[in-house]
Amino acid sequence: TDIILDEHGDVVFELGRNDGGTVTHLRVSSKILTLASPVFKAMFTHGFAESQDLSSTAPRLIPLPDDNTRAMVLLSRILHHKVARIPKKLSLGALVDLAILSDKYDCSVPLNVYGTLWVAELMESACKGRYKELLFATYILDLPEAF
């Protein structure tokens, strides 16, 4: 599966290699990612292998075997402002996966508005047995009012 969020993107994330499912290639812009995350900024600007020879004509393939594919696609859509492809509702499991990825890449701020909306939708159902997961997600996504 190929997903292009920026046709001039200089990076292609390879996702799903370790989960035994379909490998997904996600084309993104390193510039957009560096503006949203200090982790991506370090990855793409401090001489790491991922920052070498970045080019939109020959995007750099970066395997992310440990990252949840669904969460990385959603995170990247949010960071690239692909609003039409961002769901209005999210399952609690998907929210938890996104929170974990957000924590890994230190980019909870761009998720704040969406996280607030998703948590509001999940509040009633989560109180029926999955409250700990919702509490975890609100904490990791830095949503103090919801927390």
Automatic annotation (TrEMBL):
BTB domain ranges (all copies): 9-88
Record protein name field: BTB domain-containing protein
Organism: Lophium mytilinum
